[in-house]
Amino acid sequence: MNLHRYRFILARPLQLLPVLFGISIITFVLVRLIPGDPARVLLGAKSTPEAVARIRAQFGLDEPIWLQYVYFVKNLVLGDMGKSILYKMPVLQLIGERLAPTLLLILGSVILALALAIPLASIAATRRGRLADHTIRLISTAGLGFPPFWLAIMLIIVFSVKFDLFPVAGYGDTWGDRLHHLALPCFTVALALSAVITRNLRASMIAELASDHATAARARGLSERRVFWRHVLPNAVIPAINLLAVNIGWLIGGTVVIESVFSIPGMGQLLVRGIFTRDYMVVQSVAMVFACATVIVNFLADVLTVAIDPRVEL
Amino acid sequence: MTPLLAVKNLAVRAKMHGHEFDLVEDVAFSLQRGEILGLVGESGSGKSVTCRALLRLLPGANLSITSGEILFDGRDFAKMTETQIRNERGASVGMIFQNPASHLDPVMSIGDQVAESIVLHRGVSKAEAWSQTVDLLRQVGIPDPERRARNFAHEFSGGMKQRAMIAAALACDPQLLIADEPTTALDVTVQAQILRLLMDLRDKRGLSIILVTHDLGVVAQACDSIAVMYGGRIVERGPKRDVLKAPFHPYTSRLIACQPAHGLGAGLLPSIPGQPPSAGDMPSGCRFHPRCDLAQTSCRETVPGLKERVSGHLAACPITEAGITEARP
Any CB–CB contact under 8 A between A239 and chain B? Predict the structure, then answer.
């Protein structure tokens, strides 16, 4: 074990700082570029100018924009994300409630996607050009083509409405109940994700099966099965790790649609509602959390790549 | 003495875009225990295909052995089932390749790759296999083998990688080593070291070696006998000394003339005019006739077979009378 190859872990938190700084400025400015005023949205069309001014003062919206940013960053450093204008509660608490469903949804989808993609890619690659391969490629192409919201609705119609196997929507109270509620949404996301991974994994497996080192392993008397598990698979998953990380990064902001269709009280839903109500604090903070999560996922992918591929130095 | 390996009438056919052609035809040679045979020829002459065919490791479903016997110690590899031939690979016959960098698994340690086949063929424990691995790495001249066994391919130099490949190929003590251009990708000093290692292993283990090369210098240094391939056929074979000194086939003599030691002087090396034929577009008759200055009408019509010219020295040319002793420029 060469521990020096893991030195990059120590440097990463420092690299995170400029990323967060950039993201905070961009979201801070962008959310204020949306026409509309949170106080007016909150109070409705018939509100008096005095009431609007009072709310604006209460949330510090009457301060110059640069000062608002300074307060935002200062409070963030102190662990305070401000108060939601709409929900009238600390944003930190809001996020705390919404984080678990989204994390569970993403985690479940990724596990399910891998459980689908690895066997399917293996079958397709080892039976290249045969019926199984063509079928798997057809399904994965279709999986890429179906829009997730449509797929979600189809799954609800079949599995919830017709066969009554899963709840139509919502998020449970107990853990078992939650998993039951999340099964269909996870499956919806996993289908699209596994299509991407399967295609990539199949291609790299085919390349590895034809590689020189696989030939050399065969020349040493290894069975086709052993060549596959010991030499082809470990080499083929390396490019898939980064692909998976990129896709998880995309999922982190992209679960909005699925959360809406299945009414899951997650981060995506919080973000969308925050944007509609010009709930500045919520939008800024959720964006920061998403940015952190994306960075963490890529960091984990790097650690995994270093662990699997001895050639990589970061 | 019965030879360790006797190849008879071997042919490998390729199917591509609907038409079929032979990559290798009528290949026959034999190898004694402890003998080093040099398989010589230009790129595309069928050397590598022949080697892979011996272990039934032809790439893809497009290539197949269509005829011939591969008798190894009396067992015919050509007629074995897939499982049977797999048990021979590594255990009876080891193989090393031209580019050791790409033939080693980049993400598995060198020691694990060597130990893997020991566990597979010998059924010993992992710890036992590991100690045998360290021992083997020492034998092939890898310094500090306990530590180096835990290294990965990219941490080895080119020569060390080839040594590691040799260790992996010899892990189960095969009687025959097929070395497919083992020194081509290495620089000259390392090349000489690897050749010396192979000759050492022959002396110590009684290993037979098929050494594929396009370098007659390598043959002169390491081999006992030579088989020269051209256009998918063996055109001349015999003891090294006889073939190099008194070749019968015009191709062999031109090849020898092209070696730097025989050259005309500084900066001027002779070459054989024309291009080697490509598989699927072979000339009729003798494959070499379009490039041969001795060619006659009959060369265009019939494929000459190998005929014994001197004891143990065969050539596939009916034109040359005696050995072409003077290599012509």
Answer: no
